[in-house]
Design a protein that fits this description.
Length: 78
Amino acid sequence: MITLSLKDSGAPIGEIDEADLKVLVDQLEEESGEDTDYYMTTATIELLEQKGASTRLVDLLKQAVGDTEGVDVVWTES
């Protein structure tokens, strides 16, 4: 499984599977080959949803963003 967390606080968001990680990696820009964090906004989540992200991933990200402009999310393999 893959664990998503808030980058700044390290607070866990939840776990996703390899298919959802693939959606993140394929659809979002990475600064390097070892980059494991992404800036999430409502618009980013909508894009991921259109590109095949699961309901679980979308719900986790929406909860993480809440009513903020956006948050940095980091993933790690567990």
